[in-house]
Amino acid sequence: MLVTDQVSGYDIIGDVHGCADALRALLEKLGYRETPHWHHPERKAVFVGDIIDRGNQIRAAMEQVQRMVDAGSAYLVLGNHEYNAVAYHASTQATTDSHLHHVQHRLARHLHHTLQEYRFHAGEWNSLIQWLRQLPLCLEFEHFRVVHACWDARRVAQAMAIHDGCCLRSDEFLLDSMQYRTEPNRIVERLLKGTDLQLPEGLTVLGSDGIERNRIRTKFWKKKPETYGDILFQPDKLPEEWMQRTLTEQDKERLLHYGREEKALFIGHYWRKGTPKVIRDNIACLDYSAVKSGRLVAYRIGAETRLSNDNFVWVKSAPL
Ligand SMILES: [Mn+2]
Questions:
Q1: Ligand 1 centroid vs 77 CA: distance in angstroms?
Q2: Are residues 128 and 270 in the same domain?
Q3: Is the N or C terminus of the chain more exposed, i.e. has fewer CB atoms within 10 Å?
Q4: What is the CA(249)–ligand 1 centre distance, in A?
Q5: How many whole angstroms from 148 Cα to the centroid of ligand 1?
Q6: Number of domains in the chain
Q7: Which of 237, 254, 271 is the last residue of a domain?
């Protein structure tokens, strides 16, 4: 389904992660006013997801976004963190199932800050979950697309076939998505977490978050990549000899290629650092690590179809 509005443009906004003050400052800078909820007379905002977790103003950030979406002045696509919240909630409804118990335990760690903030607000938490379940995994506008981590045409088509991409409305889809190697799980993983590759020969990388991983996040737009260095897309670097290492044919088959001629695409998710720049003239990532004293970033798009570095707007967020 194509989204159309009578507006002069859109402001696509990156991962907020509980930085409500930074969000207010950014909206103000973009010309939005809070009367009574944040809105712009000629534009709409589109959030790429991940409003919750990590920061210390999670409820406040979520409330601002919810009010904007409910009033029709913004859209929100689900991030992996919102998906986790919905899956966690579903797992708490069926505590006798051992698989769901495991899911619940794992997700509770990811959702730690969020669960803390909603601890004494059970009614608000339950209604937030129901509200999140109505939201889409991705959105397609006339001249651009928005998804949290990766636009995979095949997975997007599958998602769009279920309540126009608002897949979590379906109990069956939600429960299946919580089981590995089901189609709903693959759809959610691909759109909300992106593409990755398993490292060979038991090699692992120690992330800056202290977690050891045997997988790396990869670019999904590189044409004819040859080495790991060509496709690595994450803050944690690989040793130089691994960057030079040649990809196997099997690796190459697993990678995706979002073409240069495709519609402009906006994503979040990847913890970028430094001054915001487009990845290519049809791909921009808006996650610049707002919660880690980075930037909360927006991209202002009008009717143009090619992206430019001049259209980023950001605020620096205060350290936690
Ligand atoms: Mn994120």
A1: 12
A2: yes
A3: N
A4: 31
A5: 8
A6: 2
A7: 254
pTM over 0.85: yes
CA of 115 to the centre of ligand 1 (A): 17
Which of 69, 183, 218 is CA-nearest to residue 136?
69
CA of 15 to the centre of ligand 1 (A): 5
Same structural domain for residues 128 and 98?
yes
Q: Is 274 left (phi over 0), alpha (psi -120 to 50) or beta?
A: left
Q: How far is the CA of 141 from the centre of ligand 1 (A)?
A: 22
Q: Do 210 and 298 have their domain in common? A: no
Centre of ligand 1 from the C-alpha of residue 61, in Å: 14
Q: Mark whether 175 and 244 lie in a shared domain.
A: no
Whole-Å CA distances, 75 to 139, 169, 226: 9, 17, 38
Judge if 237 and 128 occupy the same domain. no
Give the separation between CA 29 and CA 15, rounded to whole angstroms. 17
For the stretch 202-255, pLDDT in tens is 888 888 778 888 999 999 999 999 999 999 998 888 888 889 999 999 999 889
- pLDDT, one tens digit per residue, over 41-53 is 999 999 999 999 9
Structural domain harbouring 248: 197-254
